Amino acid sequence: MPIIKVPVVHKFGIVCHDEHKKLQQRLLAKYLKETLPATKKKKHVNPYELTEQFVEDFNYALQTESKGKFIELAKKMLARCKRRSGLSTLGIGKYVNLPVAWAEAILLLQCKGEIHEEAVEILLISLDHAPLVPDHIPVLFFLAESVLYRLCYDTVEKPHLFSCEIKLSKLGFLVFLRLLLFYFFGYQGFSEEHRSRLHVGLKALAASEVSYQPYPNILFMVHFMLKAGEVICETSVLSQTSLASDASLQEKPAKSFSDTSPMGTGGSVELNPEQKQFKIKPFLWHSLLVWVCVQNSCSNIDEVLKHVLFYKEELHQEDWLESVLGLMVLGETAKLNMSCLRVLMDLVRDFISSSLPLQKQKKIYKGNFSCWLWPVGYIYTNLLKEVCLHGTSADLQKTAFLGFCDCVKEHKGDKRLRGAGLLDLLSYRSSPDDRHDPFWVIRYGVVYNLVVLRSELAGDVTREGLRNAVWRSLQKQKNIEKDSHVLEALRVAEAESEGPKDPFIASKEKGSSIPSKAPSSQSIGWRVATSMCHHFLPPIGPDIPLPRPPIQKPPLIPRRESELSVKEKKAKRLTLREELLLAGVPKYPYPDYLTRTEIALRRIIETQWERELEMRLKLEEKLLALELKEKQKLEEERFKKIMKWRLEKLNKTTKPYELPHKQAEEEEEEEEEDEELTESCSSTQLSSAQLSRA
């Protein structure tokens, strides 16, 4: 233990020993009181730790000078949240931690401004393509409670509809869909505490659903959350709307299949032995079979599609959750196969046509569309939009938009629903009076999804024709539509595509760094179909043929030429190998099949190379001839220029180093005269010599 010596200053002279000890104790206590708090280690605080206190400080700082500092810090937290969410890797990776990322995103969602918007986008994209893992159940309950709180206690109290409510309803739909699947699969993790808190939020949502009656796009999400919440909590939610009653919910676990099954099974079929309380219905079961057939390219897909059509009456049951799931599975198959798209369109066309006499039996008031199961028809419009957007071929996209026939021209005066394409549903009315038409929700869904489709196709040059067709159909519908509810769909979808219109959002900057959505092969519909097939259907392996023992051929016995008769020689022509064996050449080193194939391939390569070499030589000869011709042409042009210059400058037409014609003749005459003179001189010299001799 260290010895602390405190200096004592004697201000009053000499003191006694007791007083000296008391003074030392007082000074030591004062010293320890002042120095010990400073010597304690300060707790390390992470500046990037996301807490509720940070959210409060952020929202308060937006009105102060430290606004930029908090926004920069929140953007760094968003970047970390994107990395943990695995937005670019479909929720899979080394640094991906989806529960932590979703919890951080739901906290950042409480911030105002662009941080709020990007946090919602991160959650929507991540929940759309993330894998289904049972460890996510606790954080999904937390997300569900947070979404219900925001919808019930924040947005509903506002006098107008904002784009934030649409995104929150989509977020709630994705969260409750995942929780519903986990409940169907029988995973453990649904504690009573979670269910009780969720039940409180569902009651508040059921009380506030009336405000969303004019907006079926949000009302469908709200009804799905309520129906799924009732199944998960295993209790009914008190509501006076078109939701299921307590009796229907109590009868749900005891429901079974009808005895009329085309597969000859009869009664209820429990496909998962571990999950005893949930019994899958035939329509959903056969929809999953269609998905398996499409994924494995089975040849008996037409028979399975006939069975799906056989159970089309199940779409009219009050418990429509499994019907919606079955249509979602069929929608995924319709993106890949034309036959599946045809069956899906026939199913919904018959469903709407058969719903017409049912709704006539009930008393219809203005704006009342709860007299028929409209959620089944509304989800179908979303599926057609997805096929137009993510169909694997142009024919699938075109068919989902136009239908299989030109029903408008062929049956112009017929009021019956002839097709189930987007254009067919856009012009469908069950009654001439729009005020008493309960099927206006179908036109609402078509208009809403067409506007969303047009905004999704913006910038895609390859599908500009589809986008123009969508725009023309919307403009035409604006001129002929009289129902105010359907016209409201245009304003709602355009406001959603343009940006947030929420009082919580202070500002929005363009150029968000959120990546694009995942491909259709990894969307929530694909996850639903794959996971349900994995849990409710037996595993199907690849079609691998069983190995067969090779056929043993009798070996060739070499025989001498003397043993062969003359008749055999004439009747059969021996092969080269047989001739070599008969000649006494051993089997090896005779080349085997691979060696002969290599030799033949080498010959082919050499022959091809010789041909190419000949072609190159011919090409070089042609190039040399062209170069020589070009060179001669240049020489002729140069000579013509020289001759022109000689004519202009020297007034001569002769070639260089060439004498004129007359001058040449004179020179020739002079040469002849010189020769004659020389001859005459030589003759005179001879005569003088002769005279001298004489």
Characterise the protein shown here:
The chain has 694 residues and is mostly helical. Among the domains are: 1-39; 253-498, no CATH class. Helix content is 61%, strand content 0%. Helix 5 packs parallel to helix 7, helix 7 packs parallel to helix 9 and helix 11 packs across helix 22. The protein starts with 16 loop residues before the first helix and ends with a helix.
Q: Summarize this, please?
A:
This protein is 61% helix and 0% strand. By secondary structure, the protein is an all-alpha fold. It is extended.
Q: What is the straight-line distance between the termini?
A: 169 Å
Mean of the pLDDT scores? 76
Order of helices and strands: HHHHHHHHHHHHHHHHHHHHHHHHHH
Secondary structure tally, helices: 26
Alpha-carbon Rg, integer: 47 Å
Would you tell me the structural class of the helices and strands? mainly alpha
Largest sheet: none
Assess the beta-strand content as a share of residues. under 5%
Helix content: 55-70%
Shape: extended
Number of DSSP-assigned strands:
0
- Report the uncertain regions: 238-276, 407-414, 500-513
